[in-house]
Amino acid sequence: MRAERLRRESPAWPRLSLPIARPSLCLAVLALLVSACASRPLTDSAPRGSAIPKQLPGDPTPRQEPRSRYGNPPVYEVYGVRYRVMNTSYGYQERGVASWYGKKFHGRPTSSQEPYDMFAMTAAHKTLPLPTYVEVRNLRNNKTVIVRVNDRGPFVDNRIIDLSYSAAEKLDLIRDGTGLVEVTAISFDPQPAGNQTLRAEVPPPPRNQSATVSQPSERAADRPADQSAEARIFVQVGAFGDPDNARRRYSQLRDSGVTRAFVMEDSSRSPILYRVRIGPIADVDQYDALVVHLRKIGITESHIVTD
Questions:
Q1: Is residue 227 a part of any domain in this protein?
Q2: 97 and 127 in one domain?
Q3: Domain range spanning residue 117?
Q4: Which of 73, 94, 245, 284 has the fewest CB atoms found within 10 Å of its own CB?
Q5: Which DSSP category does 25 fall into?
Q6: Which residues contact 150 (CB under 8 A, 6 or more apart)?
Q7: pLDDT confidence of residue 54
Q8: Total-model pTM
Q9: Same domain, residue pair 40 and 179
Q10: Are the CB atoms for 180 and 302 separated by under 8 Å?
């Protein structure tokens, strides 16, 4: 397993590979390793001085690869939480918090048993099949990278992906340690039966194999990164066809102390949708605190949107 990179000391996160066969044995071994690791502090850091590369690597070219022999059990457990590895990466897209990990784990085996290279364009994810190529977009500055997921993690609440040092550097996430991102799978898996979602093709990889991403119109790599102004980020906690339902959700938020909630009338949809949003969100710390607050008042479904 990989470790959550934090700017302060934190409990160590387990790091091991999980073979495909005998998942019950894997879970038992994992539980022992978690218990052994969690008792000592762990710090992580970026390379310094001459170790800093003069030029960051280019993004990898997505290509079809067989599933890794290691790191793809049907189910595994960490800190009492069970994770089910996805059968397919097709159509996966999620917005949330990205973190990164650095030299503390440089050279150590990943969950797929490949050595971790903080200068390579790789990442860790809890449930995507290993390996999977994904596009990661920084929602603040619209910068994008493509990384190859070959590791498991991050096992911290509210984190969806852990990036290598190089990937985080290219997205401008090193200084803050975390950032709000959109993760989109570049999938070579066949379309599941009954899934009619349109996909946009990425540039053809070798041997004329085709891959798909979940945006229906354009690749984020084709969109110019706006570095002159940061995007505003909001948390949406409901979209209602009935304005009374939207007002009730808004009142629930205001009564609980959320002062930056509002209802947006989306007349581009027919029938009209009334979207209840909170924000703008200043940073990851504010987002984390908001998610915790929403759970306390019984709102467990929310997602990040940008203007």
A1: no
A2: yes
A3: 10-222
A4: 245
A5: H
A6: 68, 71, 110, 111, 112, 114, 122, 123, 124, 130, 131
A7: 79
A8: 0.77
A9: yes
A10: no
CA dist 72 and 199 (Å) reads 26
With a CB cutoff of 8 Å and minimum separation 6, the contacts of 142 are 220, 223, 224, 225, 226, 231
Which pairs count as long-range contacts for 202-211, CB under 8 Å and 24+ apart, including other chains? 202/62, 203/61, 205/61, 205/62, 205/63, 205/64, 206/61, 206/63, 209/63, 209/64, 211/62, 211/64, 211/133, 211/186, 211/187
The Cβ of residue 219 has, within 10 Å, a number of other Cβ atoms equal to 16
- Measured CA to CA, the distance from residue 21 to residue 14 in angstroms comes to 20
96/182 Cα distance (integer angstroms): 7
Domain total for the chain?
A: 2
Do 290 and 181 belong together in one domain? no
| Residue position matching structure tokens 């590979």 | 17
Which segments of the chain are extended strands (E)? 10-11, 41-42, 75-78, 81-84, 93-101, 122-124, 132-138, 144-151, 159-164, 178-186, 200-201, 212-213, 233-240, 261-266, 273-278, 303-306
User: Helix, strand or coil for residue 74?
Assistant: coil
Taking only the tens place, the pLDDT of each residue in 169-205 is 999 999 999 999 999 999 999 998 765 443 333 333 3
Distance between CA 67 and CA 239 in Å, rounded? 38
Q: Two tokens at 253?
A: 């938020």
Question: Do residues 161 and 136 lie in contact, with contact meaning Cβ atoms separated by under 8 Å?
Answer: yes
* CB of 3 closer than 8 Å to CB of 104: yes
Q: Look at 207 and 52; give whichever has higher pLDDT.
A: 52
Residue 249 lies in a domain: yes
User: What is the separation of C-alpha 214 from the centre of its chain, rounded to a whole number of angstroms?
Assistant: 15
Is the Cα torsion angle 196, 71, 182, 80 positive or negative in sign?
positive
Which residues neighbour 107 within 8 Å (Cβ) at sequence distance 6 or greater?
Answer: 115, 116, 117
The Cα–Cα gap between 142 and 236 comes to 20
